Amino acid sequence: MLNRDTLGALIFLAFFTAYAVFAWQIPLLPFEEMDAVNSASIPKVYAVLGLIFSLLALLAQAIKRQHNRDAGWPQINRRSIGQTAILLLLMWVYTALLEPIGFLLATSAFLSAGFFIMGERRWRVLLLASVPVAVVFWLIMTKLLGIYLVPGELWS
Amino acid sequence: MLDGILLGLSTALQWQNLLYVIAGCFVGTFIGMLPGLGPITAIALMIPITYSIDPSSGMILMAGVYYGAIFGGSTSSILINAPGVAGTVASSFDGYPLAKQGMAGKALAIAAWASFTGGTIGALLLMLAAPTLAKVSLSFQSADYVALMCLGLTAIAAFSNKGTFLKAMMMTVFGLTLSTVGIDPSSGTERFTFGNTDLLDGISFLLIAMSTFALAEALSNVLKPEVKQANSEQPMQIGSIRLSKAEVKEISPAVGRSSILGFIIGVLPGAGATIASFMAYAAERNLAPKALQEKFGKGALRGLAAPESANNAACTGSFVPLLTLGIPGSGTTAIMLGALIAYGIQPGPMLMQDNPDVFWAVIISMYLGNIVLLILNLPLIPYLARVLIMPKAILTMMILFFSLIGVYLVSFNTFDLFMMIGFALVALVLRLLAFPMAPLLLGFILGDMIESNFRRAMMTSDGSLSIFWDKPLTLGIMLLAIVVLAMPLLSFLRLRKAALKQ
């Protein structure tokens, strides 16, 4: 099994390779081509530095490997992974719905769904910790500070 | 300087700024007490609010949050042995044993007084050091700035935990690459936008800070629940918060030494509260007489006082490079720099002349912040400690909500929120792989500044790189950066040699 430091270095190696490919494709403006430093120079430097460091990290792992084979993976249970994934998805849905259905509705639904996912089952808590928060925040923003918050494009 | 102090006093003592200090310390303590949430998260959550107030008030608020978060971190270190902040880990060595012996109140009082003294001595030193250094740095040119920033970036990696140097460097470069997204300010060329108009402006720093710290910290608390939190459900015995004369006498020299040590370490780029507190702890243990030495780790008063005063002094010290050079040395000051730039204020040697109110108000607010922590937060600790029992579901969701809406209120663009969720996922994976996050933030913030200064330097030198070693000052800083870069390599080789010999 891959040790986690090796995996990290490999991920960065892949990222910096991709970055380097795009860095060498940055279109230059005509007048820039004669300049010593142009828009592509610094990204190229970063790409090379990134590649050097990720290769060094791989090399260090290859040397170290003879000594300790299993650099510990953290212990995480499945349920936590599931919860985290659903929370990320929930944030995505909230973002997608924020402008169409409006701040008040989206936020109340987001908060109560989140509490539910985190294991809160008392419906009173679910409601009391979500709707009032959304309403109070909305009142402070729109009435007190005069900041516009989307009322919902679907119904306006 | 007297004018400056008076100006700072008159700004910081305006009633709304006083309110900001108090609110900042309070909110900071609250967030800092929560295990897993650090000062960067606390400050990031404040930034959307600071956009609607003027710069000096905004900085005062953020500085208050910073001290509060460090103080709150000590509280959870002492009470439940779960430091919310890396800078207060050393405080739990002796603080938690004290609390277990039923002297939690005493431990908290020592922490508060030591922090207060450390912060105050730090603020005094800052007041003396900053204007002098600002005068010196007026003569700095673009090439010197590039060299200084290189030093800052390598230093934060070199001072990170043992064995994570390369990881920290990869994160630094990752941050630098992220800063190149968007229209290149000097030529107008589009870079890494992939035809997406939402990326033309680049990635906002608030987005990066919120997703890699606030979101990622809240989510990783869900992913890896802290076992220690279970302890907090038992009712806590705080005990008396009085200190006897003998106790004060015992800790005073330790506090004095650690404050000065902490301040100096805080000024250095890359090293911050964490290193300062560990060094002060180690130094006090070595300095202590034999009989006392054995008490360290089992509830020695000095063992608690030393890291507490050092980390607060270091927090203050880390403002020196930010205010005088405009170069942050830590993740926390990086985020403050981002906020200042958003105000259109360029920190650096000109800050004292262009915006003296900001400069001095921040310094004066440090004294106020320390006083607020002492007289307001200390008595409230037993009540604040109950916060730790607040349902985790509610806390996590509130942080997710405030992070998302905070970014939305600044950009009013849901594309930013989608990007934020993506970055939060990336940060979560990187955290699992044990990558440090602060170098990313620092690299991202310094990226733009390095590029523009580098191009300015190259323009003045007609495209010759020799500008980076022609002047002794530039050369000196450059060499220092290289030495810092080579240090971990040397220690790696030495370890390897020893391992091969066996």
Automatic annotation (TrEMBL), chain A:
Per the UniProt entry, what species is this protein from, by scientific name? Answer: Rheinheimera pacifica
Query: What are the record keywords, sorted?
Result: Membrane, Transmembrane, Transmembrane helix
Report TM segments.
47-64, 76-95, 101-118, 125-150
Signal peptide start and end residues? none
Please state every residue range assigned to the domain named DUF1468. 8-149
Upper lineage: Bacteria, Pseudomonadati, Pseudomonadota, Gammaproteobacteria, Chromatiales
InterPro entries, alphabetized:
DUF1468 (IPR009936)
Pfam families membership: TctB
- The organism's superkingdom is given as Bacteria
Name of the protein this chain belongs to: Putative tricarboxylic transport membrane protein
Automatic annotation (TrEMBL), chain B:
Pfam families linked: TctA (PF01970)
InterPro entries the UniProt entry points to: DUF112_TM
Domain DUF112: residue ranges = 18-442
Q: Which UniProt keywords apply?
A: Membrane, Transmembrane, Transmembrane helix
Q: Does the keyword Transmembrane helix apply?
A: yes
Transmembrane ranges?
A: 20-47, 59-80, 107-130, 142-159, 260-283, 322-346, 358-381, 393-411, 417-446, 473-493
Which PANTHER family does this chain map to?
TRICARBOXYLIC TRANSPORT PROTEIN
Name of this protein: Putative tricarboxylic transport membrane protein
List the source organism. Rheinheimera pacifica
